[in-house]
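FORM 7B: Structural annotation worksheet

SECTION A. Query
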Amino acid sequence: MTAHGMASGALRRDGRLTLTFEDRYRVHLEQTPGRRLAVFATVLDLADRLEKQEVDRMLQTLAARGTGLMQSRASTLSFDTSRHRLLLQQTLPADIGLERLEFELAEFVAALAFWTQTGIVQELGST
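SECTION B. Predicted structure
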């Protein structure tokens, strides 16, 4: 695996693969029951810093700012209510070829970089 730039511990016992891009972005891949591949990353860990109304307002603001990006990219924002995290996620076919997987991961990381550098996310991350 190290020949492809993956650390030896990247594949976990639970089957999830964690990749790090640019020493900054941790992206997780996991097979879903429907023969799909889930790709996800934490954009922001809120750790109980916001009430539900504030989370709803934040998601509305992010959706308004990123409408163009969401129309042109396969990834979407979601909020994990059990762990209080803002996530970027995407699904891919489980039998995706290596070349397409590399392309999709590059697009995903570009979208992740956009969302993590969005002003409201940075502002929330510093509170």
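SECTION C. Observations
The chain has a mean pLDDT of 80. The helical segments are 52-65, 67-72, 98-116, 119-125.

SECTION D. Sign-off
Analyst initials: ____
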